[in-house]
């Protein structure tokens, strides 16, 4: 069982219009409603992979109810903590030429009691779990050490996927696994990481600081894993990309579904990320769509350029 | 890295383009002739099986037929250029630049992780333009090896 925590989930509505014009009434060509949030995405991917999971998330007012309903339809088991504020609703407007306009709500302000309840539920529910995975941004008013507190209190292995100050705080608490992307890792160590060697050095630095394992998602560059037993880089031939939304979440889910350690789990992580890129929106891949044979795992080639014109 | 992924004899600047199979066959034969593929029929079957699973065409006129195969002795990249284009299943049309990636079954595939570099090059206009404008196979092999090889 893998327990995920999403402190700031969302109800994501995607509307397609012929052309967006300010101040006018538009007739939508299509519309869809998706559950949003990194931990929620990880649980969705695990559910599709047949791995037992439980999503812990706050749920407020009508949007919270709709979000719960969507998770029910997808068969994702969830524990929702009732909150007074409304779960945020995000609107994405897509035009036929690919132009995407996003309108994101700030999200609810949670009370101290509500935050405590999410923490208590996460700790209690993950007591016998193999992983406690806490992901994403924090809603207004939530202390930056939310993820860090879970890491300190958890009795099981913890994986953290977030950015900025919450990631910095979580890293200081010594999680078993973090999954930053290239930019998040660069921000965390405070320098640009232009080559795979630079990324490797940053990951080693974090391990030396107390993080158990570092899984860095590198977009088209695949992913790098640095852990106790070794260091590996995995990549696939270039794939046709429809949407990179949720690809990092799929990467983490694939890694955990395959045991959460070692080169085989890294290969699965990269296969999941590539598969998610081929799917629209934040749709999570199913096991039959995972091109595992496409993934190549090897020793990190430190001179491989990752940014700039040389990349 | 000492081993070359691609050499001049693995470059075809006038790729047979009557069908995807013809294009794939031409590049595969180059790999076989170079001793990088031992069993041509097996290799072609593995390439086709992968293509059937999911087309390897990318937007912008790119085809990337590839497979992991017991018929491959050493990680290799073959490149073909087509003026008319070859259909690799991309939504926006046929491929004029075809990269064939051959990886050995199991074992060490350190070389193949440099494929990550190929993805980044392919979105760069200058990289594709260089390949479109090139007139010399050896220069193309050197250029790709330099750009993609780590």
UniProtKB/TrEMBL annotation, chain A:
Q: Does the keyword Transferase apply?
A: yes
As recorded in UniProt, its EC number(s) are 2.7.1.56
Q: What Gene3D superfamilies does the annotation carry?
A: 3.40.1190.20
Main EC class the enzyme belongs to: transferase
General function of this protein? Catalyzes the ATP-dependent phosphorylation of fructose-l-phosphate to fructose-l,6-bisphosphate.
The UniProt similarity line reads: Belongs to the carbohydrate kinase PfkB family.
Annotated protein name in UniProt: 1-phosphofructokinase
Instruction: Report the residue ranges that make up the Carbohydrate kinase PfkB domain in this protein.
Output: 18-285
TrEMBL record, chain B:
Which InterPro entries did the record assign? PTrfase/Anion_transptr, PTS_EIIA_type-2_dom, PTS_IIA_fruc, PTS_SugarTrans_NitroReg
**Parts of the chain that traverse the membrane:** none
Q: Does the keyword Acetylation apply?
A: no
- Record key words, sorted: Phosphoprotein, Phosphotransferase system, Sugar transport, Transferase, Transport
Write out the coiled-coil annotation as residue ranges: none
Q: Where is the PTS EIIA type-2 domain?
A: 4-147
Pfam families reported for this sequence: PTS_EIIA_2
Listed PANTHER family? PTS SYSTEM FRUCTOSE-LIKE EIIA COMPONENT (PTHR47738:SF2), PTS SYSTEM FRUCTOSE-LIKE EIIA COMPONENT-RELATED (PTHR47738)
Protein's name in the database = Fructose PTS transporter subunit IIA
Lineage at the top is:
Bacteria, Bacillati, Actinomycetota, Actinomycetes, Pseudonocardiales
